[in-house]
């Protein structure tokens, strides 16, 4: 009886000792969802809650998360690709993209 008890105890200890807990993977980046209610001007890259046209330069705003053509300044949809008017590549309007371009415009 002692042998069976010791055998079960050793088996339990070995299973617990060699089982691996899931490690926190720091290489995975948590992505932040784009706020669908936010809009950005493709000229001055100012982000607002209202759509329509920009007060400063009167260009039509693009919803965050949407793709737009940097040449025509028109929103083209939710998928990357080519602009139907000028066949240029489309770019996604994001908060990070706007922040990068606002910093470039201030320096230049």
What features would you describe in this structure?
By secondary structure, the protein is α+β, with helices and mostly antiparallel strands. The chain has a domain of 69 residues. It is 28% helix and 15% strand. It contains 2 helices and 6 strands, in the order αββββββα. The strands form 2 sheets. Strands 2-1-3 form a 3-stranded antiparallel beta sheet, with no helix packed on it. Strand 1 and strand 2 form a beta hairpin. The chain is rod-shaped. The mean pLDDT is 80.
Which radius of gyration do the C-alpha atoms yield?
A: 27 Å
Strand order of the largest sheet: 2-1-3
What would you call the shape?
A: rod-shaped
| Poorly predicted spans | none
Total helical segments? 2
Q: How many beta strands in the DSSP annotation?
A: 6
Helical/strand content category: alpha+beta
Which sequence of SSEs, written as H and E, runs from N to C?
Answer: HEEEEEEH
Q: What is the overall pLDDT average?
A: 80
- First-last Cα distance: 84 Å
Q: Helical proportion?
A: 25-40%
Major beta sheet summary:
3 strands, antiparallel
Strand content: 5-15%
């Amino acid at each position: 009886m002692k042998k069976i008890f010791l055998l079960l105890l050793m088996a339990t200890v070995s299973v617990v000792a060699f089982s691996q807990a899931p490690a926190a993977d720091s290489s995975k980046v948590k992505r932040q969802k784009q706020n669908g209610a936010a809009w950005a001007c493709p000229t001055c890259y100012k982000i607002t809650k209202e759509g329509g046209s920009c007060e400063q330069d009167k260009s039509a705003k693009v919803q965050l998360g949407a793709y737009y053509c940097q040449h025509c300044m028109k929103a083209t949809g939710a998928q990357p690709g080519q602009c139907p008017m000028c066949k240029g590549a489309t770019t996604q309007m994001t908060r990070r993209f706007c922040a990068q371009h606002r910093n470039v415009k201030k320096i230049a």
